[in-house]
Every structure is written in C-alpha cells, then in structure tokens.
Specification:
Pfam families: L6_membrane. By secondary structure, the protein is mostly helical. The protein has helices at residues 3-27, 50-69, 85-116, 139-174.
C-alpha cells in the first residue's frame, strides 16, 4: 500500500475525532448540561482546554498534512520540484509527533480530571462522596462521560498518529509507489 493512501485514510479519521473532542470540551463548560451558576462549578481541568487545544486544534494540522500527502506528485510537494515524496513522508513524521503530543495532553488532562472528580458542593472530593455531590445536578455522570470520551478519542488519535509515524518512516526509508512518466522520464522510482 502506498504511504500517501494510508496517510489520507488516517487524516480522514482524525478530522471527525478532532471535532468531537472540541465539542466534548465545550460541553464540559456546562456542568450537568446547564449553564453554570458560577465558574466554581466548572472543573479546573476544563480550563486547560485538553479537548479544544490538544485533541482539537493541534490535531487539525497533522490531519491536513496527512490528507495532503496523497495529492503530492512524485516530482515534488507543494509545487517545489526539489522536494519529493520522501521529504513529504519525513515531514509527516514530525506532524505525527505533534499530533501524538496533542492527543497525549488531552488524555492526561482528562485522566487527571476523572481522578480529581467534578467541583460540587462537597469541599473534599473522593469517589465515596459521589452520592453527596448534588449541585449542579447530574454533574458526576456528565463529567465522567465527557472526560472518558476525551480519554478514548485522545487514545485513538495517539494510535493513529503513531501509525502515521511508522508509515512515514517506511515511506522515507523505502520510498513510495512507482510513478510513471514523472520529471522527464526515468523509471519513476523514488
């Protein structure tokens, strides 16, 4: 399989995941699905924007690079003849690393948020006090569900970026598919 085709598939998968992560983080600003009566009810970890930045905005860059790799021809990338598929594959490794870090950030922030629990009327939080956390209403299932989704989606994004890093490394070392009649002839091997 061509590394460009694989990268395009991974890019297509990352875009909806990034959008869902952004939405999940935005929903966390509405504890229990309602407008917060005060910012004190919003968990501190929501303000770190793990879903908006880490698994969201940062993930858009690798996704777009991965999507664009299939469109690069054998003679160059971005219209520059001195740059070829191997360089495109190498640069995709860098963007995969950026995506991996972004997904990891979201994953860690979400795991910490689940461990600490939501802010509610209980001063000292621990899992034994879940029944006592009544304000805002439904805050516990709300936070657990959304932060768990961020953990799952961040983990999937990290795996997809790791796959692209391996794919890009293989494309850098071994080249990509054959191209016919490119750059004035030759066998077209990269």
């Amino acid at each position: 399989m061509c590394s460009g085709k694989c990268a395009k598939c991974l890019g297509i998968a990352l875009i909806p995941l990034a959008i869902l992560c952004i939405l999940a983080n935005i929903l966390l600003f509405f504890p229990g699905g309602k407008v917060a009566s005060e910012n004190g009810h919003i968990s501190d970890e929501v303000w770190f924007f793990g879903g908006i930045l880490g698994s969201g905005a940062v993930m858009i860059f690798p996704a777009l690079v991965f999507l664009g790799m299939k469109n690069n021809d054998c003679c160059g990338c971005c219209g520059n003849e001195s740059c070829g598929k191997r360089f495109a594959n190498f640069s995709s490794i860098i963007f995969a690393a950026v995506g991996f870090v972004g997904a990891g950030y979201s994953f860690i922030i979400s795991a910490v948020a689940i461990n600490k629990g939501p802010k509610c009327g209980v001063i000292t939080w621990n899992h034994a006090l879940w029944d006592e956390c009544t304000e805002p209403k439904d805050i516990i299932p709300w936070n657990l569900t959304l932060f768990s989704l961020l953990i799952i989606m961040g983990g999937v994004q990290a795996v997809l970026c790791a796959i692209q890093a391996i794919n890009g490394l293989m494309g850098t070392i071994f080249g990509d598919c054959k191209c016919c009649g490119c750059c004035g002839g030759g066998d077209g091997l990269i």
